[in-house]
Amino acid sequence: MPRAATTSDSFNAVAEPRRREILEFLAGEERSVGDIVAALGLAQPSVSKHLQVLWNVGLVDARRDGRRVLYRTNAEAIRPLHEWAGTFARYWGNQLQRIKDHAEAKTRSSRD
Question: What is the spatial order of strands in the sheet that 60-65 belongs to?
């Protein structure tokens, strides 16, 4: 089965590490392209292309403020990503609990 285009699927869009960095940076507040460039040390054309992909799949919203365009995350569009990743967070939580239980059992048995 062919993979969905990056511009049509939010999961494919966030597969690119730079886009995830941009989303993390935007999570706190809305920012301009210049803010993103300065904070992440990426080239302006690269940031603009990544923002366009994120905007196309609905993960970011944009609004004009004079000559600037300010971007912010779209929490509702990110929800499916969060819910899917939560499946694995529960898995790792269970795994870590099993490791902790095993280590504590070993410690108890070595004291006996």
Answer: 31-32, 68-73, 60-65
Give 52-64 pLDDT, tens digit per residue.
999 999 999 999 9
For residue 23, give the nearest of 85, 65, 67 by alpha carbon. Answer: 85
Name the helix (H) or strand (E) containing 70: strand 68-73
Domain ranges of the chain: 10-111
Query: Which of 4, 20, 5, 16 has the alpha carbon at shortest distance from 82?
Result: 20
**pLDDT higher than threshold 70 for residue 6:** no
Options 3.40.980.10, 2.10.109.10, 1.10.10.10, 3.40.50.720; CATH for 10-111 is 1.10.10.10
